[in-house]
Amino acid sequence: MTGSCHSDGERLVARLRELLAETPDIGYRAVHAALQAEDTFKDISLKTVQNALRDMKGASQDGYKAAMAAEAPPSVTPDEKEVHISRGDISQRFGMVLDEDVSYKGGHHIRRIVEGGVVDEWNKKNETQAIAAGDILLSVNGQSSLSSMVGELKEKTLCVMRIRTSAGKGDEGLREDDSEAKKEEAEWERRRARVTAALVPGLKKIIDHEFGTGAGERIERVETMYSRIGRNDVYKEEHALGPRLAPGYIHGLSPVSPFHDVKDHPWCAQLKKQWKAIRQELRQNLDPGLWTGGAYEKSNAAYGKDWKIMGVLTEDRWQDEKRFQVTTGALQALKGIKPFEAFFAKMPPRTKIAPHSDNLNYILTSHLALELEEGKCSITVGKQEQYWKEGEMLILDTTFIHSTKNESERPRYVLVLRFWHPGLTEEERRAIHVSHAILARAAK
């Protein structure tokens, strides 16, 4: 028994050294997740990993320090606060209802403070530091994932909470929907360890099979992207034209600009020629039963349920070629573009969508404005604002933080066409497309 344990321990230390050598800044939880994805260590506990890394401190000082540093919580910024709240025993509930989805800047929105809970009572005694619905919970006792924060709130009598305070109201009278960016980022977070452990080798085999032996080695940028995702290393940039955020980031795609010149995409002129026919088809399909919340339906129910889409091309399928005969035909006839998805988008009157990122720089987004009140409906991407004009197109990089508003008294309708960035190679596009399908199945 002793010999077996000793052998297991040696294998663990050897594997830990390999992981630290490959990724010096990897943290405890990322190491733990990577090990669990391997058959040899699938039952290993987080505590065992932590103890092993501590034991390695003397033999691998640099890697150990890097692992410790990766776990250190970030310093508190001006729009954040740190509060210390204690309770007599764990039977007393802190009383905070958290949003399951990840905020585009990280953390989880506090949806409600439960009356009579520990936080509610603390608020009454600390009005200047009160925690409010709409604030974002960033960490509890240094833990930042939803499950670990909830665990701390359930099990600890003292909780040190880092909170980002909610922004001012602004644009009074407009209802805010801050949910559009959440789905993909939360999915990356939940599955990041499994991605790096198993996805990339499988993708290389598929690309080799479809494009020829050795083709898998040409998806290095995709491999780098998933390596970052596995480390929970979200690409962030304070660009001169505005901040960018992209969990799904392929290096080297250009140009980098909030808005792209439609003249660089000749298919835009081809699509614009049919805008009136497409608008007429839209007008024939305004039955509320045809419109859904799309990928963000769950979040929209809480933050802006009236924001709706009507799918034309979603989940790799043309949804109703008979109903959308004109629109489908127009899109299928486009040359020089690889569509990712297409849908009509309805933005109700007197509403806005809060600043967010769509998280993927390898997908660009185009809007064909169909019906709206000009001068009252705009989109701000990075530091640039553009107003939609009926029959005109915009192309935007939605990794720039962007927001929209409809200040008119009637709905705004646009045709949204998201398409693969033309800077991707055929092998890269195929690899990412396959990875999306694999991840979608894994999430079910």
Q: How would you describe this protein?
A:
There is one protein chain. With 444 residues, this protein is α+β, with helices and mostly antiparallel strands. It has helices spanning 2-22, 28-36, 46-55, 61-71, 118-125, 146-155, 182-211, 220-230, 267-272, 275-283, 297-303, 325-332, 426-443, and strands spanning 80-86, 96-98, 108-113, 136-140, 158-164, 175-177, 235-239, 242-246, 259-260, 308-314, 317-318, 339-347, 351-356, 363-371, 377-381, 384-387, 393-396, 402-406, 412-420. A 7-stranded antiparallel β-sheet has the order 9-17-14-19-12-10-11. It has a 5-stranded antiparallel β-sheet with strand order 1-5-4-3-2. Strands 6-13-18-15-16 form a 5-stranded mixed β-sheet, with no helix packed on it. β15 (377-381) and β16 (384-387) form a beta hairpin. α2 (28-36) packs across α3 (46-55). The longest helix is centred in the middle third of the chain and has 30 residues, at 182-211. The chain is globular. Residues 1-6, 58-73, 167-173 and 299-304 have low confidence and may be disordered.
* Rounded radius of gyration (Å): 24 Å
Q: Total strand count, please? A: 19
Q: State the oligomer.
A: single chain
Report the mean per-residue pLDDT as an integer: 82
Q: Strand order, biggest sheet?
A: 9-17-14-19-12-10-11
How many distinct domains? 3
Backbone shape: globular
